[in-house]
Write a structure and sequence with these properties.
This protein has 524 residues and is of the alpha+beta class. It has three domains: 1-86 and 163-172 and 216-255, ATPase, nucleotide binding domain (Nucleotidyltransferase, domain 5); 89-161 and 179-214, ATPase, nucleotide binding domain (Nucleotidyltransferase, domain 5); 256-443 and 487-495, ATPase, nucleotide binding domain (Nucleotidyltransferase, domain 5). The chain has 19 helices and 23 strands. The protein has a six-stranded mixed β-sheet, with helices on both faces. Strands 18-19-17-16-22-23 form a six-stranded mixed β-sheet, with helices on both faces. Strand 4 and strand 5 (48-50) form a beta hairpin. Helix 11 packs across helix 17 and helix 15 packs across helix 16 (427-437). The protein is globular.
Length: 524
């Protein structure tokens, strides 16, 4: 346990949309949260990036703001843990100064190179080791792209970090990464270490020295430095844990694994859609299409097998933006919040299974359960009688069918799905997801699951709990709601619809390729 008066843990979660710092007591009750919107830049060439200095300054600001909410925060803090958006490439050089802006997971510049790398004979062995399908969002692909196009950037770098690693460097002056992100990018999930054959398959053996040491935040902490203490308002020497990537921390905090919980799944419905199963490493079923992720969990021998949709609620945002722009053109300004408030009514005014929507709205295409940077959203089955409520329902049904597609690629369907993410608050969306997957859902009442998962790692590291299983019993199990059973008629409807969804997306692949080719010629 922490020392006298040390009764608070802080979880930092630097996401794609928001950077937040959250205070919890040692039993997992949330005491306060401070947040700032994250800012990044995109370009027409697929680039997505943000300044490293800005990210650290925003993180430090949220910690100072948290102190304004929680009395005597600095003295009471027993431990700090940090997680952040995954993938991407954050290069650091001499004096721990940034070499360039951080490439985000949204960056698609490596898409063409990924197609080439996936076509090489060595990619199967890389996939067997990492358990993770290669795509443009990953550090390995992005560093290979830099090596091919701008090697001078890599020449100036001394270490290649992810977002959370960069924040940890600023907090502790330590250049390390976590075993989860290290292995699904450059390693072997069975050994929890780097794998030289994987690095060679990516063509990055000459850059092997850029990969940092691996530190597990449930076992290793480093003290908050004096300079970081001055910037954050916390006390120098406070133990800091490097959390696993935000997806793994969110899954942990949301209930992907509970003692005796059985064959549950965990779905995060946010900007992206993450569909996960907790498994022993030896029980992982890798698919022939070489897609998905295997992410280590901070539990001995346990991993999360994951299939991830590139876009989830981004599809809903697109549909609502169409409505908002149309209203604005007619002189009526409607806020995003007002439009979101109408979704339940639109669902009630529409019938299930009338249209097929493939939710591949991201410019980066799709990564789960297939990898295709050319994939694009489609609406199939329109007739003159369909209305806007039918379109909204089709978009949300598309998210449910995409979730089914992802779980099916990992083996048997889950007996239950734990839901988290902002969209999980919608009863209509939850009902569609449950029916499309064919399993009851349970909502985690945990508001900040990612920050909580990171803080749980700190709780174990400082000895507040003997192990993660004991921490889960206090922090996770009480937050899970009662199971919500799907409507049997809707289950039957979506069971009949899913084969058409899958056949259509397979048939569309050459169409996407043709459209991408035409776009490339036009841009050329």
């Amino acid at each position: 346990m922490g020392g006298a008066g040390h009764d608070i843990l802080i979880g930092i979660d630097a996401g794609t949309s928001v950077i937040k710092s959250v205070a919890f007591d040692l039993a997992g009750r949330q005491l306060g949260v401070a947040s700032l919107p994250n800012r990044y830049t995109t370009r027409a060439d697929g680039a997505a990036f943000q300044p490293l200095g800005q990210t650290w300054a925003d993180c430090a600001r949220t910690l100072r703001d948290l102190a304004a909410q929680v009395p005597d925060l600095a003295r009471r803090t027993a431990g700090i843990a940090v997680t952040a958006q995954g993938d991407g490439t954050w290069l650091v050089g001499a004096g721990n100064a940034p070499v360039a802006d951080g490439w985000l997971w949204l960056d698609a510049r490596a898409a063409g190179l990924v197609r080439e790398l996936r076509g090489r004979p060595t990619d199967r062995a890389r996939f067997e080791a990492t358990g993770t399908g290669l795509n443009a969002c990953q550090m390995g692909a992005q560093m290979a792209q830099m090596q091919a196009t701008t090697p001078e950037i890599l020449d100036r770098a001394e270490v290649a970090l992810h977002a959370k690693d960069w924040l940890y460097l600023n907090l502790t002056d330590q250049r390390v990464t976590d075993p989860c992100e290290a292995t699904f990018t450059f390693g072997n999930f069975r050994t929890r270490s780097y794998d030289d054959a994987v690095i060679e398959a990516l063509g990055l053996t000459p850059r092997r020295s850029l990969l940092p040491e691996i530190a597990d935040g449930t076992q290793v902490t480093h003290p908050l430095t004096a300079s970081a203490a001055a910037e954050t308002g916390l006390l120098a020497g406070t133990p800091v844990s490097l959390g696993y990537v935000d997806v793994a921390c969110t899954a942990l905090g949301a209930g992907i694994h509970t003692p005796g919980g059985g064959a549950a799944g965990c779905t995060i419905i946010g900007s992206t859609g993450m569909h996960m199963r907790a498994r022993r490493a030896e029980d992982v079923q890798l698919n022939e299409d070489r897609t998905g992720y295997v992410m280590l969990l901070p539990l001995p021998g346990m991993v999360a097998q994951i299939q991830s949709n590139m876009a989830a609620t981004l599809n809903i945002d697109w549909a609502l933006r169409l409505a908002g722009e149309l209203m604005a053109d007619m002189g009526h300004t409607v806020s995003q919040a007002e439009l979101i408030g109408r979704i339940e009514g639109w669902l009630a005014a529409s019938a299930p299974g009338q249209l097929l929507y493939h939710p591949y709205i991201s410019d980066a295409g799709e990564r789960g359960p297939f990898v295709d940077s050319a994939a694009r959203a489609s609406l199939v089955g329109l007739s003159i009688g369909h209305r806007f409520p039918d379109l909204i329902r089709a978009v949300i049904e598309g998210l449910g069918l995409a979730a089914h597609d992802c779980y099916a690629a990992m083996g048997e369907m889950p007996a239950e799905v734990r839901l988290t993410g902002g969209a999980a608050r919608s009863p209509g969306l939850r009902g569609i997801l449950a029916a499309a997957i064919g399993a009851p859902t349970r909502i985690s009442a945990r508001e900040e699951a990612g920050a909580a998962g990171a803080a749980m790692m700190s709780a174990v590291a400082i000895g507040a709990y003997p192990d993660m299983e004991a921490c889960i019993a206090d922090w996770v199990v009480p937050e899970l709601g009662a199971p919500e059973e799907p409507d049997p008629a809707a289950v039957r409807t979506y069971a009949r619809l899913y084969p058409a969804y899958r056949k259509t997306r397979l048939a569309l692949a050459p169409v996407w390729a043709n459209l991408a080719e035409r776009q490339d010629r036009n841009n050329g």
